[in-house]
Here is the input.
Amino acid sequence: MATILYGRVSTIEQTSGHQLTQAKAAGFNIDDAVFDNGTSGVSTRLVERPEGRRLFDKLRAGDVLVVRWVDRLGRNYDDVCETIREFMSRGVVIRTVINNMTFDGATKDPVQKAVRDALIAFMAATAQAQAEATKAAQRAGIEHAKTNEADSYLGRKPSYSREQFGVVRDMLGQSAGIAAIAKASGLSRQAVYRIKDDPAGAEAALALWEAKAKQAA
Here is the structure.
């Protein structure tokens, strides 16, 4: 039996090393790690990603699949739910770094199965809603940058990276405490509060800086 971390590196500020460090800090003993680089999780199913396909071939019954959050397992609600059910049917245990959630197919009790499936559905729906909100904010930031092409000054870079913003956003969605979020993300409590108080503004500021940085490159 092996514990395998799957991650996706989709921005210049995300690194496989950072995600591996996060998983180990959360108490996971990782035997192997699989990362997809530069692949959109919003438009591409897990099984269609280069390393995602390898992950499907690699996992065996009794293995533990570790992901930062369930959004890593699919592009939308249906895809995430289908992927988790597929892995559980194979005897694979899915665990998340954020909040240490565990999903497996061990239980045979219908009530427990209903509760588990409802939780998976809720988390998958939340992941899709967050992805769509992020994509909309990124489009707004890019459009704003296009209308201000003459201004080459990037402005002050946000105090948080895309990866850190994702950790804060996901943990806030699970009602985690500010201290726990700050520890998990590596941000100050003040930074976490700023994101919590204005998540749309925090996302827009990050998207705008990314768009301007890309144009300046």
Q: What stands out?
A: The mean pLDDT is 81. Residues 115-216 form one domain. The radius of gyration is 18 Å. The longest strand covers residues 3-9.
